[in-house]
Write a structure and sequence with these properties.
- By secondary structure, the chain is α/β, with parallel strands linked by helices.
- The chain has one domain: Rossmann fold (3-Layer(aba) Sandwich), CATH 3.40.50.
- Helix content is 35%, strand content 21%.
- Strands 3-2-1-4-5-7-6 form a 7-stranded mixed sheet, sandwiched between helices.
- Strand 2, helix 3 and strand 3 form a beta-alpha-beta unit.
- The longest helix has 25 residues.
- The N and C termini lie far apart (45 Å).
Length: 239
């Protein structure tokens, strides 16, 4: 068990380190960083350690997850945790955060449009949003032969789709796919500046986004891809 925990900790630390590098590269400043849907802080706490000059906040709807996150981070002074609903973040957070992270969260949400609207509310005018989600195509045929996609889609049918279907929810899950996701993000008021694979893995895409001018509260729709994928696959910035 300790060996498994050690492997997972090393994996999370590697992800956090790469996320900190993305933040340093793309954010004009990162004094205040928010991780929404942080769970037990497996990424949030090592991210705070990788960003010692930043104040990192993690929030989640689960009281148990936040309790565990606090217990696992008591030696890290620049991270704090609280219970919050991503569909209604505190008003005193308005334009507070230079960086907002959504790690493996977006496809699980019942109401992603409302969540992105709240993210835009708390995002500083010149801030960035980093969204990490599974690298699975919206076209099932394009996932044939992709072991990572098969694993993600299987787990999604047990967990992601049921949880995102609650409260008359969207029921998206992993099968929503990156093409539809990019269309959604664009229509929701974000500009995708870059898309990269985290730690050179084929499992996740990390999107670095900025606010689209005049986009607050824009209506989001589902659809096909909305970025230059030929450039994205080469890990070049998307303008």
């Amino acid at each position: 068990m300790n060996y498994v925990r050690s492997l997972r900790a090393n994996y999370n630390n590697s992800i956090a380190k790469e996320l900190s590098q993305l933040i340093a590269t793309h954010a004009e400043k990162h004094k205040n960083v928010l991780d929404v849907g942080c769970g037990t802080g497996d990424i949030t706490t090592p991210l705070a350690e990788a960003l010692p000059a930043s104040a990192v906040t993690g929030c989640d709807l689960s009281e148990k997850a936040i309790t565990d996150a606090k217990l696992g981070s008591f030696t890290v002074k620049n991270v704090s945790y609280g219970i919050e609903n991503i569909s209604k973040l505190p008003e005193d957070w308005t334009k507070k955060y230079d960086v907002v992270l959504m790690f493996d969260v977006l496809h699980d949400l019942q109401h992603p449009e409302a969540a992105i609207k709240q993210v835009l509310k708390v995002l500083a005018a010149d801030g960035i949003v980093i969204i990490v989600d599974p690298k699975v195509s919206s076209d099932p045929l394009k996932n044939v032969g992709n072991i990572q996609a098969a694993q993600a889609l299987t787990l999604s049918s047990w967990w992601c789709i049921p949880s995102s279907s609650c409260d008359h929810g969207s029921g998206l899950g992993v099968g929503w796919g990156w093409e539809n996701k990019e269309e959604f993000l664009t229509k929701a008021g974000l500009v995708i500046k870059s898309r990269v694979c985290i730690i050179n893995s084929d499992y996740n895409y990390a999107y670095v986004c900025k606010r689209k001018l005049g986009s607050y509260g824009s209506r989001a729709v589902h659809g096909s891809g909305a970025v230059d994928r030929s450039r994205a696959e080469r890990k070049e910035p998307i303008h």
